[in-house]
């Protein structure tokens, strides 16, 4: 049976389902095993959208165990060429406050052991990755935030750690001293796998906390999972507004080079 098709994809929490009209949940088989969940496909503002819960419907897959290759492959099988990757991040700078967004432009990989390429052989390729995030989608997200009156910093470097633990104070101070802006556990290898598949990808980072290296600066308290989930709950509606506004304004045809060197998933 033919799979339904979509042009835009979204990773995130299951609350986004409520915005999709004519929702159909589909199981997508991939050469890399099962994705984190079934993919919901529907329509939003006249655009066909595929939605997948990155951590599973019950948030049962920790960041280091997410099957990123299957998730991205499933999206591409459904026809997705533009992908929005909302995520939570810890701030490494006092001026990046909880409840604000960062539209990432650079990524630093500090993970280990994650399956992070489709080019395992015999097909070999080295894709361009100087600019990990789609510049066109970054502009779309910044404009959408402005239209919604949401504070969104237009650029920032995210350092991706293995998890599931948070950083030590020494690690956090190191990240800050390197000039990096936020810390996260899922942006890598999500962004590079999207690039290998020729999918335009943007990281939409919600600041949920200050990382532990900022403890004691202006009364900042150390990060905890309770704080992260509380700020996420408080900002769900803001994330949804931002995504809805952005989806309706994504150009039908990309004007970027994100598709260079892509794999054809067949």
Overall description:
By secondary structure, this protein is α/β, with parallel strands linked by helices. It has one domain: Nucleoside phosphorylase domain (Rossmann fold, 3-Layer(aba) Sandwich). The chain has five helices and eleven strands, in the order E-E-E-E-H-E-E-E-H-E-E-H-E-H-E-H. Strands 1, 2, 3, 4, 5, 6, 7, 8, 9, 10 and 11 form an eleven-stranded mixed beta sheet that branches. Helix 2 packs across helix 5. It is globular, with a radius of gyration of 18 Å.
- Compute the number of helices: 5
Give the terminus-to-terminus CA distance.
Answer: 15 Å
- Determine the mean pLDDT: 90
Would you give the CATH topology? Rossmann fold
- The proportion of residues in beta strands is 15-25%
Total tally of structural domains: 1
Structural class designation = alpha/beta
Described by strand count, sense and barrel closure, the largest sheet is: 11 strands, mixed
Cα radius of gyration in angstroms: 18 Å
H and E order: EEEEHEEEHEEHEHEH
The low-confidence runs, each spanning 5 or more residues with pLDDT under 50, are none
Principal-axes geometry comes out as globular
Give the helix proportion (percent range): 10-25%
Please count the beta strands (DSSP E, at least 2 residues each).
Answer: 11
Features:
266 residues; Rossmann fold; eleven-stranded mixed beta sheet
Short summary:
The chain is α/β, with parallel strands linked by helices and 266 residues long. 25% of the residues lie in helices and 23% in strands.
């Amino acid at each position: 049976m033919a799979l339904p098709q979509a042009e835009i994809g979204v990773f995130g929490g299951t609350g986004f389902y409520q915005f999709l009209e004519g929702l159909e949940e589909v199981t997508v088989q991939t050469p890399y095993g099962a994705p984190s969940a079934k993919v919901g496909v529907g329509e939003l503002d006249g655009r066909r959208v595929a939605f997948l819960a990155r951590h599973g419907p019950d948030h049962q897959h920790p960041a280091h165990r997410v099957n990123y290759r299957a998730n991205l492959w499933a999206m591409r099988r459904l026809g997705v060429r533009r992908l929005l990757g909302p995520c939570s991040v810890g701030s490494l700078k006092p001026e990046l406050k909880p409840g604000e967004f960062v539209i990432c432009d650079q990524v630093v990989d500090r993970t280990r052991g994650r399956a992070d390429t489709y080019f395992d052989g015999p097909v070999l390729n080295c894709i361009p990755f100087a600019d990990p995030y789609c510049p066109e989608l970054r502009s779309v997200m910044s404009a959408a935030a402005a239209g919604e009156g949401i504070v969104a910093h237009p650029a920032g470097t995210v350092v991706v750690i293995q998890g599931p633990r948070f950083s030590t104070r020494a690690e956090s101070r190191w990240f800050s001293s390197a000039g990096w802006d936020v810390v996260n556990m899922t942006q890598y290898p999500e962004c590079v796998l999207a690039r290998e598949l020729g999918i335009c990808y943007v990281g939409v980072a919600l600041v949920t906390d200050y990382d532990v290296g900022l403890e004691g600066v202006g009364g900042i308290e150390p990060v905890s999972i309770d704080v992260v989930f509380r700020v996420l709950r408080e900002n769900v509606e803001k994330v949804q507004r931002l995504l809805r506004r952005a989806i309706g304004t994504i150009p039908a045809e990309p004007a970027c080079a994100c598709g260079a060197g892509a794999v054809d998933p067949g």
